[in-house]
Write a structure and sequence with these properties.
alpha/beta; FAD/NAD(P)-binding domain; D-Amino Acid Oxidase, Chain A, domain 2; nine-stranded mixed β-sheet; six-stranded mixed β-sheet; 31% helix; globular
Length: 429
């Protein structure tokens, strides 16, 4: 008998009374955003992190806040890659063969959702969140989060040929047709180099996307953690939660150290590890680690803003005095070691297109696990237990959508019902 059948035979139940002490499991962008917005309503928050603040996917990603590009990962182009491509360790999307029933289930669902119809449905779900994403960052800034978000003076998607840029323009038109604001224009010929001098003449066309931002992920998430603590929240690092036990009036957490703290409610925001704690509460939709890589390099001249190479799936972001280069997608176990072939593939992919970038002086080589779902939509909201909530599965968009997720999850926890924006992201779907 499942948890929901045993405890709530008539379906999803509602908790009585607004929770006053809430645990958040996971100290990445999503978990800390949930904690911060819960504090806005006067809730006492304790954040449990099995490693350290921003230790997961929040640390090494590209740091983009790009509502114009935030869309479901399964898309028709995925079907054109072919099996031979995804089995190549130097491919932008890499799938090492292994016997794994969960991975097989995820991939079957991912392929099934890589259709135009499914993409349009998913894009319509994202639009209400994307439209409020930047505003949620502004709320954090007004509330004392000190780290800045930077407006992209230029944000260029770069291509060898004009016809490749035309395909992205068509995709952005589809995003705009779905109701999402997406302002852009094509840049061709000599205008590409004039717009961004670090690009070589191998970049024959680009698409400039307007109104986007970026941030320094470790600095921002650390600043968010400091803000949570400054407002009375507690962040417990090196505290792995191994189990959740539903009790009358709340939830008991069981830690690896044998501690059993009790809270009125809990928000699980553990990224690619989401299923481990939430499966018994009715969350059976698979969450798979889609691992990405990054490193930083010195430059003679910093780009004016982020650069994106869609064909190669590589992102470049100015972070302080160094340029962060991030990319690739591989479906491996979260704990598998960094694959140096993937770093080499990123270097080789971007080298022809940039000048004055020392790709051989790499620091902070990193691999992290993005939490991906088969339909490309996160899991946001209540579980079968009225005391256990889920916030995860954002794929590549955890940074961009972390704050608006926190804002909407806080409403869900406090009011006992999800706002309409979260309906497509039901964790029990």
């Amino acid at each position: 008998m499942s948890f929901e059948e045993e405890y709530f035979p008539s379906g999803r139940a509602s908790a009585t009374g607004a929770p006053r002490q809430v645990a958040v499991i996971g100290a990445g962008m999503v978990g800390l955003s949930c904690a911060w917005f819960l504090q806005e309503t006067g809730v006492q928050v304790t954040v449990y992190e099995r490693d350290r603040i921003a230790a997961g996917a929040s640390w090494g990603n590209a740091g983009w806040i790009t509502p114009a590009l935030t869309a479901p990962l399964p898309e028709p182009v995925v079907l054109r890659y072919g099996l031979r491509a995804v089995l190549n360790p130097r491919s932008p999307v890499y799938l090492p063969l292994r016997a794994d029933a969960t991975l097989a289930r995820f991939l079957t669902g991912f392929v099934a959702h890589s259709t135009e119809r499914a993409w349009r449905r998913g894009m319509a779900a994202y639009v209400p969140l994307n439209e409020r994403a930047l505003e949620a960052f502004d709320v954090l800034a007004a509330g004392g989060v000190m780290a800045a978000t930077h407006r992209a003076e230029t944000f260029l998607a770069c291509f060898r040929r004009e016809r490749e840029a035309e395909r992205l323009c068509a995709e952005l038109e589809h995003i705009r047709d779905a109701g999402q604001t997406a302002n852009f224009h094509a840049v061709t010929d000599w205008r590409v180099g004039a717009t961004e001098p670090v690009l070589t003449d191998r970049v024959g066309a680009a698409v400039q996307i307007h109104g986007q931002r970026y941030l320094h992920p470790p600095e921002f998430v650390t600043s968010l953690a400091m803000a949570v603590e400054a407002r009375g929240g507690q962040i417990v690092q090196a505290a792995e939660v191994t189990d959740l036990q539903h009790r009358t009036g709340g939830v008991t957490l069981v830690t690896a150290a044998g501690e059993r703290p009790h809270h009125d409610a809990v928000v699980v925001a553990t990224g690619a590890d989401l299923s481990r704690l939430t499966r018994r509460f009715g969350v059976r939709y698979p969450v798979q680690a889609g691992r990405g890589y990054s490193f930083s390099v010195p430059v003679d001249r910093m780009p004016r803003g982020p650069l994106y190479f869609p064909t190669q799936r590589v992102a470049l972001t100015p972070l302080g005095e160094r340029l962060r280069i991030a990319g690739m997608m591989e479906f491996r176990r979260p704990g598998d070691p960094l694959d140096p072939r993937r770093i080499g593939a990123i270097v080789d992919a971007v080298r022809p297109f940039v000048t004055g970038v020392d790709l051989d002086d790499r620091r902070n080589e990193w691999v992290g696990s993005r939490p991906c779902t088969p339909d490309g939509l996160p899991l946001l909201g209540a579980t079968a237990s009225p005391r256990v909530f889920v916030a995860g599965g954002h794929g590549m968009w955890g940074i961009a959508l972390g704050p608006i997720t926190g804002q909407l999850i806080a409403q869900t926890v406090l009011k006992g019902e999800s706002p309409p924006e979260l309906a497509p992201f039901d964790p029990l779907r």
